[in-house]
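in:
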């Protein structure tokens, strides 16, 4: 059953797919656990779609922002298509979650947003990687280029083993590169990061002004 589920997501376009028991996210804050979204949830299917390496080779304003946003929409499409196929072929219930937005949890004084479920912590729980000191998911093959999606299911699936970390011991390139000191090695201060990273240009387009903590990482591309 586990391989059948995994193949559905890979066939839908995912680059990587891992599985985790719902309880693997029991340490998440109240309201942000799989069971808070759906009490019948038994397992999570967590998958990733990689951006091209080239997105971090140029000024992020127009290129990275545009295609990273497109990648998130594509992740939602994969989650939707794979959930439909799971229900049709496996006789289960499958709930695709929005990978980036919308979400309701917003603390305006901290500029702090939180999705229905932490995609990167779900990815760690499903063996897709570990978090780097920049708090981004680091996958051995795809580096920090994965956008992550999650589908909840009532199927009981065996979880995947944790992935070894690939963040380099002693490295602090991402911490030193942040122009506003938003990173401390385990947390990203959204109040500092958001105004520096996101804006709208004179023409009215949304742009990404900063992705330095991602671009400077020696593991950004992964190990191929
Ligand atoms: S995106 Fe820019 S401002 Fe935000 S944490 Fe990374 S380096 Fe700092
Ligand atoms: S830049 Fe260095 S410290 Fe930061 S995530 Fe990458 S390898 Fe880890």
């Amino acid at each position: 059953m586990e391989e059948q589920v995994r193949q559905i997501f890979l066939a839908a376009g995912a680059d990587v797919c891992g599985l985790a028991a719902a309880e693997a996210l029991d340490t998440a804050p109240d309201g942000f656990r799989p069971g808070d979204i759906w009490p019948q949830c038994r397992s999570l299917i967590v998958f990733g779609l990689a951006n091209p390496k080239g997105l971090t080779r140029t000024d992020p304003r127009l290129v990275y922002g545009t295609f990273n946003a497109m990648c998130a929409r594509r992740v939602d499409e994969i989650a939707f298509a794979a959930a439909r196929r799971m229900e049709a072929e496996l006789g289960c219930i499958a709930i695709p979650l929005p990978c980036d937005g919308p979400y309701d949890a917003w603390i305006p004084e901290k500029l702090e947003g939180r999705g229905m479920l932490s995609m990167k912590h779900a990815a760690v729980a499903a063996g897709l990687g570990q978090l780097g000191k920049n708090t981004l998911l680091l996958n051995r093959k795809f580096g920090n280029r994965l956008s992550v999606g999650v589908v909840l299911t009532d199927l009981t699936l065996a979880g995947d083993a944790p992935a070894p970390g690939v963040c380099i011991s002693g490295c602090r390139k991402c911490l030193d590169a942040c122009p506003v000191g938003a990173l401390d090695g385990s947390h990203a201060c959204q109040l500092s990061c958001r105004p520096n990273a996101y804006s709208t240009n004179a023409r009215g387009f949304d742009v990404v002004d900063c992705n330095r903590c991602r671009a400077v990482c020696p593991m950004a591309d992964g190990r191929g």
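note: The chain has one domain: 1-224.
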